[in-house]
Design brief:
Number of strands: 5
Number of domains: 2
Structural class: alpha+beta
CATH topology of the largest domain: Beta-Lactamase
Protein name: Helix-turn-helix domain-containing protein
Organism: Duganella vulcania
InterPro entries: Cro/C1-type_HTH, Lambda_DNA-bd_dom_sf, MLTR_LBD
Order of helices and strands: HHHHHHEEHHHHHHEEE
Strand content: 5-15%
Shape: elongated
Number of helices: 12
GO molecular function, one term: DNA binding
Length: 255
């Protein structure tokens, strides 16, 4: 198997100047970048472990360790995403906004003339438009609040209003849990996903039961029906898309 992760780390190690990470730049070096021993010390791991990682041996790199590597090597946002993708790990900082990301997401949903919202990997709503807020009044506030990320699963399983709004709630709840499991895949045991699953399992016996079923289905579109307290019976066709540069996000439109 081609060692893409190790080659990527080694290439960026060799192009990272010692003085950029607070090390003296003196002495003879085969390459102008960091030695393995230096990078290992900065990341708090053994040189042997780092050598094995670069060589593609059977060692596991945690999300925390990859984050430290990305910081020491001064990786850009695209390089950091590529690193975590190669290692098949979740970036603990993948939701951090970088230069207007939040404003761009708000502009996308605002331009859609139907209920629309954007979910992150934890299924927190990170952007939505007024039409979505009116439809999901118990979940989405009229305007996004600073540091507030309304979670779709918490609303579905912890808010009694969801059972009244969503037609055929039991079937939609069953499918939603199966879609969530498919969406997060092998990352279910990593934080913050593991904490969310534990919280939901403790708060909702229904979620706990559905989670243990191990059902997996794709997040498909189709008919979605609601019984709204003010607008009456409503039917939409749901369409879900992923932004090209943010595969951890999902744009959901009810047309």
């Amino acid at each position: 198997m081609h060692n893409k992760l190790g080659e990527f780390i080694r290439a960026h190690r060799e192009r990272t100047r010692p003085d950029s990470v607070g090390l003296p730049d003196g002495g003879r070096r085969r390459t102008p970048g960091l030695r393995r021993e230096e990078l290992a010390q900065l990341c708090g791991v053994s040189p042997t472990w780092l050598t094995w990682l670069e060589q593609g041996r059977e060692v596991q790199a945690s999300s925390k360790m990859l984050a430290r590597l990305a910081e020491v090597l001064r990786l850009s946002a695209a390089e950091r995403a590529y690193l975590f993708g190669l290692a098949d790990r979740l970036d603990p900082h993948h939701d951090d906004d970088g230069g207007g990301t939040a404003e761009a997401l708000d502009a996308v949903v605002a331009a859609i003339g139907a209920p629309a919202y954007i979910l992150d990997r934890q299924w927190d709503a990170v952007a939505w438009n007024p039409q979505a807020a009116r439809l999901f009044a118990g979940w989405l506030p009229p305007r996004p609040q600073p540091q507030s990320r309304p979670n779709l699963l918490r609303y579905m399983f912890a808010d009694a209003a969801a059972r009244e709004l969503i037609v055929d709630w039991p079937e939609r709840a069953r499918r939603l849990v199966a879609e969530f499991r498919a969406d997060i895949g092998r990352h279910a045991g990593e934080q913050p996903l593991a904490g969310l699953i534990a919280e939901l399992s403790e708060a909702s016996a229904t979620f706990a039961e559905l989670w243990t079923l191990q059902d997996v289905v794709g997040r498909e579109g189709g008919l979605r029906r609601f019984r709204h307290p003010r607008q009456g019976d409503l039917s939409f066709n749901q369409v879900t898309l992923h932004p090209a540069k943010r595969h951890d996000l999902k744009l959901v439109m009810l047309l």
